[in-house]
Amino acid sequence: MTITGAVQRTASPVASQGLEGNSAGDGVALRASLRDRAAAIEAAVDALIPAVPGPEARVVDAMRYATLGGGKRLRGYLVAEVAALFAEGADADARAYRVSASVEMLHAYSLVHDDLPAMDDDDLRRGQPSTHRKFDEATAILAGDALQTRAFEILAETATHSDAVVRTDLVLALARASGAAGMVGGQMIDMEGEGRSLSLEEVRHLHALKTGRLIQYSAEAGAILGQATTEQRERLAAYGRDIGAAFQIADDVLDATASAEELGKTAGKDLAAEKSTFVALLGVDGARREAEALARRATEALAPFGEKAERLRDLARYVVERRS
């Protein structure tokens, strides 16, 4: 599903409960911003993973299949929109979209592996066959591995930033967000939690690692690119952390209430796997209220950035109102 299609869907019931400032005008501006940045990110990914001839072509084709042609580009959008708080212009945009492409590759690797039979065993991703279904399991594993290494390679290249300290900070922050203390650790907790009850705090910790850390990194990466002050970087990391948590809660609600056609992937997987989720622990309405509170807190962190952060405020509202 394209980002435009995702944004234009009817708002979920959480929208009717109200988030201040979410006018029709805000939605139009956000849709345009999401669409334009998604197109630029898509172009960057296309350029940074070019098709190749020869015997390695199959794995590159799988890499391109996993990353191109769909997705919300939420993480890449965050990088670019936060970076624009500090610098604008063609050169700044080019740097930001390289980092956006990098995080989208890292995210795509995680989805390719997450869909494998050994993990969530899902045949659908973004309304299309999962990478291991389109190709085969071995190729999907290798494509995920190559996407992960390409993500770090891009961050280390001088085209991403002339300052080696900035490049090092980007690499370090992504490694911390995606490894055993971040996304991978969260996936392990998720797998271990199947078929047993987790407490609310355990579920919060699980999703802070599995989903939240990469979204938090995306906001923080924009600040690193912009060579933000320590206080600015901390505020933007807090914003990313809170919308990451809100995004996951919204995912739990959608898994319980939306159709496979709306989601572009199998619906009801959490219930079938007997996973502890925010919906299981708080109910649908309680989960929605928690997501809304997190979105409010995220917008508060943006106060010092004024009008330049308006699309980021809109995004905090969007993550809890989306239908896919």
Automatic annotation (TrEMBL):
Molecular function (Gene Ontology), one example: metal ion binding
Cofactors, names only: Mg(2+)
Q: Which UniProt keywords apply?
A: Isoprene biosynthesis, Magnesium, Metal-binding, Transferase
| Pfam families referenced in this protein's UniProt entry, alphabetically | polyprenyl_synt
Q: Where is this region: Disordered?
A: 1-24
Q: Does the keyword Transferase apply?
A: yes
Residue stretches of biased makeup (Polar residues): 1-15
Q: Which GO terms describe its cellular component?
A: cytoplasm
**Superkingdom assignment:** Bacteria
Is-annotated flag, keyword Zinc? no
Q: Gene3D superfamilies, from UniProt?
A: Farnesyl Diphosphate Synthase
A biological process (GO) annotation for this entry? terpenoid biosynthetic process
The entry assigns this protein to a family as follows: Belongs to the FPP/GGPP synthase family.
The name this protein carries in UniProt is Farnesyl-diphosphate synthase
Q: Which organism is it from?
A: Acetobacter nitrogenifigens DSM 23921 = NBRC 105050
